[in-house]
Structure formats: C-alpha cells, structure tokens
Design brief:
The structure is a homotrimer. Chain A is mostly helical. Chain A has 2 domains: 98 residues, Orthogonal Bundle (uronate isomerase, domain 2, chain A), CATH 1.10.2020.10; 317 residues, Metal-dependent hydrolases (TIM Barrel). Chain A contains 21 helices and 9 strands. Chains in contact: A-B, A-C, B-C. The interface between A and B is large, with 52 and 52 residues.
C-alpha cells in the first residue's frame, strides 16, 4: 500500500473511478479548465488591490480570515485565543501555523482540505502533505513566496486569470478603494456589490445609526419613507457608476411582502423612526420582507441583478459573538420556506422578463421541492450555485441532481466562489468545473446527452451563464 | 470526440457505465421491457378513444398540453401567447413548433427530453436531434404520420401494448365517453377514476355550484350532510359500474380529521350550506380533512382504492391563473406533514387490512422520514411512485434509495405515468423499468440480492404490484 | 443467469462494483474487520449475561424481540396474534417461524435481510436462502445450535469479540443484574446507561409514580425541585459506580430551555407536584426542555457523556399501543429542529470543552443543514451514527455524505448497534465497517485522500473514536 500520494493534487481529482466516465470527464474538463475566472460574488477586499501590499504571513493569510478553518479547530477544543482570531497583528504566527498543521487531519474529507492543498501545490509548489512534521517547511516556503512580487495581490489576480471580481460592500462605504483601483490605471475589472442589510434590517447592530448615516451620505431625509427609499436608490446609482451590476441581500428568512404605499410608510415609521427597540419581532420581519420587494422594484428600474441569500441564523453562539463579533463560524442554517415567503414579491414582479433575481439557499431540501419548480417557471428567477456549507463536491453534485431535472441547466447561473480567502479562488473554481464535468460525464455515459452537447453545457456553466446572468 | 449520437435512444440508456452493473441491468431489463403497460393513474381523455379522431399537428400534440414543456420555455422569457397556450385552435402550429425546437437545448438533462426523444425515435423514426435546423423536418414527418391510421388513438393504444388505462374524472362527469368506448365493442380496458376535489374542497372555484349539481345528478339533497354523503357514494358506484377501481384526492395538505357525526354535520352546515365565503380558512381545511376520512370509510365499504396526492400549492402565479386558468405549470410543491396529518384517519382505519390507501408526495424529505416508516407499519398504506417533478431518473432512484430500506419493495405499487401527453406513455414506463433495473442491478452487484430474486422483483415492480394494489 | 448465490454473505458484500474502488475498499476493510466490537449504546439485557441461560428457540430469538421484522410483516396484513407478539411463551414457535420464512421476500433490499443472513451464515452455518422451503431446516439447525454451550450468551459475547457492551437502563432499576455479572467474576465489560425518560418526561405513562419511586430509592424528597435533582444525581452516581459512562435521553423534540432557578422550581411544582394531568402540553414540553439542560449541567459535574435521541412520535398507532404496549414498531420520525431547540442549552454550556453531548436524529434533513454545522462549531457537540431506520447501508452513506464536508470525521463518534437483537450485533458492526470503507475508498479513488490516511480514518471510525467519545 502506498504511504502517500506523490503529489497533493492529482490530475484526475474528483473524477469517478469508472474508466468510461472518467474518460469523458477528462475530455470535458480539458475544454473548460483554462477559461477565465468570472467571480460575481465574493468577499475579497478592494483595499488589497488598491494598496497592493504583500500578504503578511501564512497564518494571517490562511487561518485568520477563514472561518471554515477555525470553526473546525474550535469544534475540537482549540481556543480562539490560541488561534489569535480577531487580533489585528499576530503575536506568534508560526505558533498559530503549527497548531493548524498539527490538526490538519481534522479536515480530511472536507472541501477546505482540497482548496488548501490546491493552493499549497499550485501556488507554492509544495508536494508533501501538511502535518506537524512539515509545518515549519510550509511556513518558511510560504513566507518567502509572499515577499516576492509575484505574490502581490495584483500579480495574483492576473496569474489567476480573473476576468471580473465583485466585492461585497456596505451602502455606507464610500467605495474609495474601488475608485483608487480605477484611478491607478491598472487594467482589472474589480466591481462593488450593493449589500444593504445594515440599513434595511432593523435587527442589525447599529441599524438606526446606519440609517441616519445613509441620510448624511446622500443628503436625503432618511427619517421619511420616501427619503429613505430615495437615499437607497442614490447609493445604488453610486455602485453602478463604479461598475456594480448586482445587489445582495442576506436575510434571516425568504419572507417578502407587498404592502400598499400607506401600509409601508406606516410600518417604516413604526420600525425605523419610532422608539428604538419598540417594534415587535414580527413587524421587524415584515419590514425586511417589504424591503426585498422594494429592492426588486428598484432593480427593475435600475437594472441591478438581485441576489437573495436567506436562511442563516447569524451569531448562534452568543458568547463568541460578544467576544469576537460577527462572522466567526457560528452562523447556522435553518429551514427556509421559499414558496410562501417569495409569493408576495412574485405576485407583483414574478412575470417580469427584465428582472433577474438569483436565489441561494442553505436549506438543501428546497432545491427540488421549491427552488427548481419556482425557477423552472417564473421568468425573473434564477438559481445561484450551492452556497456556504454546500460549496463542496457532494453539495455541487446534489445541486445538479435535484435541480436539473426540473429547472434544467439554463435557469442556473454558473459558479461563484463567495470567499474571503483570496488564494482559494482558483481552487474553488477548479472544483466547480470538475464537478460539473463529472455530472455531465455521467449523463453522457448513460446516453442521456450527446458529448457535443455536454461540451457546450460545460462551457456555459463555467463561463457563459454567469456573464449573462450578472450582466457582465 | 463524436459530434452527435447515431441514434436518439441508445439501448443502454440510463444504465450505469460500470460494465458489471450494466451487464446485470441489461439482463434484468430484458425480462421486463416487453411486459404490457398497466396505467392506473393518468390524465388522458376518454374522448380521444371514444371519437378516435386523428391528433391535429405536432404543436397541438406535444407542446400545448404539456406543462412540463411550456413552463420551461416560459421560465426563459418566452410568452404564453407566442406558444398559443390556451388557444382552442392554433393559428400557426409550425411557428410554435419552431419556437420549441429552437429552445430544445433548455431541456438538456431533464426527463422531458428523454420522453420526447423516445417518442420522436420510436414512433416517428426520427434520428437527428431536434433543433432549429431540424424543426421543419420534424414538423413534416410528424404531421404526415398523424394522418395515417396507425396514429389514431386506438391504434396507438394497441401499439403501446396497454393492458389497462385509467383516466381521471370529475364526479359531475356523466362518463358518456367511457360508456361510448364500451358500447363500441372495442376490446380495450379504459376505466374512470373518481376525483372529487371540486365537490369536497371549499376553495375549489365553483364549489357551491358543483355541490348543487351533484345533488341534481343523483337526486339527493346535497344541502344536507347525509344527502351529500349519499350523493358521493352513488357517484362512486357509477364509476365502479364503468370499471373504476380507484379514487384520487388532490389536497393542499395531508391533513385528515376524525370528527364525531355531530361535529361533521355542523362543520358541513358552516362550510357548505352557510353563506359562501364566510367560513374561515382553518374550517375549510378541516372540512377537506374530514372528507378524506369519509372517503376512506366509503372505500372500506365499496372497495375502491384511495389515492392521496397532497402538498401542491396550486396556481402559485396569480396573474397567469387569471389569464390562462388552472394547470399551466405554476403549481409548486410545499413541505408536507404526513405523520401528524394522517394520524386522525389512521387512528380510525389504519389497521384495516381491507383498505388500500396509496400515498404520493411532492416533498421528497418525507420518503425516508415519514412515508416509508408509515407504510412499513400500517397495513392499509402503500406508497405511490415518484410523482410530478420527481418522475425522473434521479427522482426514481431517490425513491428506491429512501424507501426500500424501511418499507421494502412490497409496500410500493409499481409505476404510473400520470400524464396528459399520451405519446409519452411508453417512454415513461420505459424509463421507470430501466431505473428499477438499475437499482436492482446495484443490489446484485454489491451482493445484497441474488439475481434470481432481482428478476422476480423487477417483474413485480413493472407489472404485478400495480395490478394487485389497484385491484386490476 | 445464476439462480442463486453460492453463499449467503459474499466477501465483497456492499463494495462498489467498480474494480478500482472495490480494490481499495477491500484493503481498507482488511485493516478493520477484526477489530474488537465497542458497543456503547444498545438494548440487550444484562439479565441474559447474569443468568447465562440458553436462548429458547428461533422465533423467540429472532422474530419476537425485533420490531424491524414484525412491523414489516404487520404492514403486509399479518396479524400480531399470528406472530405471537407479546406472548411470554410462544405456543407454536415453529408456526411463527414458518410464517416469517414464507414472507422473507418482503425484506429484500432492507438491512434486516443483511443482518439476518449474516447471522444465519456466520453463526449457524446455513447456506441456502430462508424461504418456505427451507423454513424447517432453519428452525431445526438453529434450535439445535441454541442448545449447545457455544450459544450461551456469555460464549456468544466472547465469540463476537465484544470489548465493551452498554445496556440502557431505567434510573429505577437496581442494576442487580449488572452487579451479578461483576460478582460472578466473569471478565467482560457490560455497563449500564442512565436513561431517565420515565422520571423526566411528564407524558411518560406512570410518570408521577415513577418520581415517587425515585424518592424512595434514594431517600430524597422528590416532591421538591432540589430533592428531585439530588435524587437524579445520586442515581447517576450509582450508574457510574457500576461502570456507566453515559446517559441517554429520548425526547419527542430537541427543545431545551434555560430557565432561572425560580422559574424551574415553579415549573416543577406545576408539572410534577401539581394535580396530575393539569399542566398544559406546552408546559410539559418546557419541563422536558429544562431537564435536558439540567442533565447537561450534571454531566459537566459528574463527567457522564450525554446522548440525545429526539424526534420520534412514539406509539403512533393507538390501537396497537392499547393492546401490545410500547416499542411495537409504531414509532414514526418527525421533523426535528435542532438549531432553535438546542439554542438555550448551547447558550449556557455550548462552549464547554469538558462536556460531551452526542446528537442523534431521525430527520435526515438535519444532517447537512443543522447537525454538521452545529457539531462543526460547538466544542461540546458530537454526532452519533445513523439511528434507527437509517442504520442501513444507504443511511450510513448519506450520513457520511452530508456530514463529512462540514464536520469532518472527527466530530463523529463511530458506530453503535442500538439493538435488542443480540445476534445481529456482529452483522451490524460489519455493515458499518464495510460502508465506512466504501466511503473512504471513493475518496481515495477520486484522489481526495491518500490511502494511508484512509486506513487511519477507517480504524478511527471502527474503534478509536467511539472509545474516546464515550470515555471507554
């Protein structure tokens, strides 16, 4: 028995063992592996590309920003303090890195392991597995690389063959970093995405202050319903002016509403300008619901593509939230009802051909039962790729298995990497391309699709559909 | 790389690529491929066989009645008007056909594509893929065929090797077409199925008028609870007299009730004879719930097999409903609770060996969690095959995967095609037979079942179980 | 075509047909097949090992205690009376056995069939399939074997290579049988598990009497909140003193609560010492919820591992319950909400590294959506293996598929057999080991894991993780 693979990333990775299917998958993959990366949704920082400073060290680069990594370590009893999560500067990056390396076996069978191995191998030329034994080797090799010009953010962007990269930004952000990139004359397409949660969700920490700031920023009176809506429309225009083509909405549920103007105004007064904390939970939920419909209306007007990411219980671990804040790996999916939730919005805009709403889910039971039937009927709806926990080989196969039979391939919108971990971007796209080829290869091997059709679909899934759906 | 398959339907279609498993699947399939078709549940029209008129043209035959087809086209921005949906006579069938053909790539990976290719190839001898290029060829070949005697409804019925075909009919239907078929002396078994939704669901459009008509038709006073029940029992007898063996119930939920006689009577007076539109939604739901239990009671008395199809949100797209009516591809599945919902009915009749209730679902999460455990225990329960959106290769495999481990094969009832598209019937049965052979071949290949047993099961699933369950 | 397999259990059973993957699976399985059995959760009786009496006959041994078997027979119209379910002594065991044998085809494709064939073949040397024809042969061979010393409970325990076997016991049990085993000097590790449902669930039949008996047994005043809690803590100590390392909690839901001391005391007075049957359902549910949190607190104090088995609707078939009592195959899974339900408990103890809570589910939709995200974050949580209906090859593969990507392998705790059927124990572990090897073989074949890592994981899943999680 071999004691270890000779390389970290095998050329046939993820392809089924059956030789016929593997052969087809290889041929399909050869057609898409080198297509440019289109990244319409993610969480990289425009500041990295504006400043183009070197990434500091392996721990700061890989461990600290990636809650996929430290949530797993934390689940096995390793403390946030030992990982220096939340520290602006790491006191002892090598110690953090060793702790991670010693526990690398925890990631066996996870997509995180694949993304990391891909980056270690493809970017840093590492060939042995990460472990306690190789921890220092890794630390030194990566550290040295990071000091070279080829590892500056802009150089990596180009090396990754990125065609367009969207960030996710607050409406209160000036987008100065985006402006700086443009002003620098660097020929890259990095664009903002309008993510208004903090000014449309009354449960967002600092909501009332945020709404006030929105008013200052736009010169609108956000203490009135009309002024508030105008302020949002203005900020959307600002995002558009810097290349933005989409909005994104992360709500606790998929609930929408279709209130009359008078009802909406009265709700606004109760929830937003009324005494803070007085409105009941159901009224705050109704406000979020109405705001999704308002955003859809604005999208119909200004052409921005609308993304809805519902269903996550944010900050489930209260103690951790109080000590370390948001986005520390303690968000947990919940059952999500799309059929009832989206009905008010669809009742108003569902048949609009000039509106694009891309739906995501962290409740996979909705794929076949709700999302594919909805997207396979309503002209405005499209399905986003597997999201968050399901951005995995199995998750991607399930997505195709449950969605294709009812909604086909052409009501989906290709892949997005949705990541804070810049170096994982090529790996994530590579996994997605491989898995789509695996799915298509199975259809071809079982004589359900001809191979020339499969090639066309593979290219559409890797490149064409995302550009079309996001108007890129 | 081949540019296209040499035939539309490959003899190994749907069989796994692994040679061992494929070999077993082929042998099993050879044992069932030519068994007669038993069709206990569907939506063909008795009038077709009574009149035996030629089908008009390809668009009218394939596109217009098949909401699987036009919901997909509609989802991609093609209008119902352009497809002439709802028109009694098509103004320009060739134009509709071309529109469909140009967009045939949308169906890649869907079962609709497989059913269509099967019909194009097996019935019309077409060998090239449907596309913009071949649209006219297809239109002409199919049009010409439809004018020949071999393509009349009765000839196709015989060619398809149908042993029995059940239609789905309103209790207000005189069943004159069924009578006419019998009177014609044609030796075919076409039987009605009693589908009383429009007289038991207070939310059905025209419900009150329907109940009144039920009274006129039977000479019973349907303004009284007893008269209403007697009228339903009489119509069930009429269906039986024309060969019917089953009823079918399409409810929004699986809720049942077990009210006392007095409670039921009072509920009837409130919901049915009280002022129209006054009863609250929860009371109308309770009335539907109680009626399922009343229907089970009647089934125990008259021997009709009871089918329950719950969980679909009908006419989710209000605008389309207002313009085009029911059944236009805008029904969407919802989560369905069987364990709580069926409890009242099962509490009363669950242990009856002489009652057969066949359960269907559009919520696949219920397969393993609720339906298999229920059917693997209660003697009156059996599980219907994958329904509607899940009548697909993947859907059928999931059904076997989730159900067999707990309920075995013998608490299921074989396949039904559930279709309005008469020409898709052989294709649908063929897919079902292939997939069951795939599932069984895997069990044999993994040494979990002997091949002689698998042959027996394959024949039971294709032919024997459905005849037994539906008392055919 | 072969008419039947030459042996009941093939050496490659459950391994995929693809030769590459099968080869890897074989190599992995060779590394784990002979490891000792660790059985941390089950329903065998300590009395069997204390008394070491021969098992009576095949029907009493296989059919009567196994609700997997007779629920299937019952679902097909065979009466409980004909199977002599509930009889202390069987009147005609051979007749019961024949009835079972004639219907053995009902179990095709189920895990029960695999477990039985394994026992028939491995323990009794039977080679032909069980059927009407071989019923008497089986009965005679098994009956004769059961009279030999090698088939006494203690001899089987040793033959099975069991390292530790946990029973499940009431807090009102004196554990005299466990004491007797210890006193006998027999070198086996059979340990009790503390299962307090009958004294913490107000809906348990006899609840109030049980609480009173708990008081008598411990000398505590269980009519007071403090005395009741002290009595429970004392019984936990008693279980520990006889080797127990775990508790088990079978609740209708996963709801927990985190009440103040005063609220809890007042709830106790209302539900436990108040007039029987007066407290509302929601208050009884709240009491169960609070008791889970109290048990977690005690686990933190005394170190017992806490198992939570929620979500089963017990005794769904009222008629059968009234005639035959509990545990007769009529418990049905229900949708279970872990994210909201566990929040109060996790809010209090979720970050404790010295607490271990093992979660089980009969709602598989929770695997990927709730359980893996929770266990992949909270240090106190681990995931138990597939439970009850899902303790099947497909169920085990789904568990790995849905859980590994988010929680990895090391937040799971290996296998437990959870059975009343002592003779099925080796078969169940064998199936689990094979399936884990199948899952790992696929990862290796697809170049996602090196084979040396897979060997390590296979051994961890079969042996190391369960010992660590249960502190054995």
């Amino acid at each position: 028995m071999p004691t270890r693979a000779t390389t970290l990333v095998h050329e046939d990775q993820l392809f089924p063992a059956d030789p016929t299917t593997r052969g087809i998958a290889r041929r399909l993959y050869a057609e898409v592996r080198d297509l440019p990366l289109v990244c319409p949704h993610g969480h990289t920082q425009a500041a990295w590309f504006a400043g183009n400073e070197p990434f500091p060290d392996p721990a700061k680069l890989f461990v600290q920003p990636d809650h996929y990594i430290y949530r797993m370590l934390y689940s096995q009893g390793i403390s946030m303090e030992d990982l220096e999560i939340g520290a602006a500067q790491l006191k002892d990056p090598r110690r953090v890195w060793r702790l991670f390396a010693e526990n690398y076996h925890l990631f066996r069978g996870t997509p995180t392991r694949m993304w990391l191995d891909y980056a270690f191998h493809e970017l840093f030329g590492l060939e042995e597995r990460l472990s306690a034994t190789t921890a220092d080797l890794y630390f030194d090799v990566i550290s040295e690389s990071l000091r070279s010009p080829e590892f500056l953010p802009r150089a990596l962007y180009e090396r990754f063959h990125v065609e367009v990269l969207a960030t996710t930004d607050s409406p209160l952000d000036s987008l100065a970093d985006h402006q700086a990139i443009r002003d620098s004359g660097w020929k890259a397409r990095i664009i903002p995405t309008f993510r208004p949660d903090l000014v449309v969700d009354p449960d967002f920490p600092g909501f009332h202050e945020n709404v006030a700031r929105l008013g200052q920023l736009t010169g609108e009176n956000t203490a009135s319903w009309d002024g508030y809506l105008r302020a949002l429309a203005r900020r959307r225009q600002h995002f558009k002016s810097l290349g933005g083509t989409a909005t994104d909405h992360g709500h606790p549920s998929a609930q929408t509403a279709n209130l009359s103007r008078a009802e909406a105004q009265s709700l606004f007064e109760e929830v937003v300008t009324g005494p803070a904390g007085r409105a009941e939970a159901s009224r705050r939920e109704l406000f979020r619901a109405q705001m999704l419909t308002e955003m859809a209306r604005m999208s119909l007007e200004d052409g921005l593509v609308m993304q809805i990411h519902p269903g996550s219980w944010r900050n489930h671990n209260r103690q951790l939230f109080e000590r370390f804040g948001r986005d520390v790996g303690a968000d947990i999916p919940t059952p999500t009802d799309y059929v009832r939730g989206l009905h008010p919005l669809l009742d108003r805009f569902g048949n609009e051909k000039n509106l694009t709403i891309i739906l995501f889910t962290v409740d996979e039971t909705a794929y076949g039962r709700e999302l594919a039937p909805l997207a396979g009927h309503y002209p405005c709806l499209r399905l986003g790729p597997p999201w968050w926990f399901y951005d995995s080989p199995e998750g991607m196969l399930r997505f195709r298995e449950y969605v294709t039979e009812t909604a086909g391939f052409y009501n989906t919108v290709g892949f997005n990497d949705d990541t804070r971990a810049f170096l994982s971007i090529p790996a994530r796209h590579d996994v997605a391309r491989r898995i789509d080829c695996v799915w298509l290869a199975r259809l071809v091997a079982e004589h359900r699709l001809d191979e020339d059709e499969a090639v066309e679909v593979a290219r559409d899934l890797a490149y064409n559909l995302v550009r079309k759906a996001y108007k890129l």
